[in-house]
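Before surveying the methods themselves, let us examine one representative protein, written as a sequence plus integers encoding its fold.
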Amino acid sequence: MTTIVVSGKGGTGKTNVAALIVRIISERKVTLAIDADPDTNLAGALGASIRKTVGDIREGFLDEKDKLPPETDKQAHFEYRLMGIIE
């Protein structure tokens, strides 16, 4: 697994650089791109639409975690919810 992080000051073109990197890598192998910016512009730069963000999943999980049966593996449940937004 390869991890690439694009960071820097606002307005420097990080989203465009990240989108180009994702497009190039995704031509060769399956690629997961995560946009940690609250503005979530990466999906638009890639021509994708967002159904839910990781933040949405986290908030939903926090709302329901106390309602889960005690034997529920909360980490596994969160990962299951997260995988539900990845196609």
Remarks:
- The chain has a mean pLDDT of 85.
- The chain is about 45% helix and 0% strand.
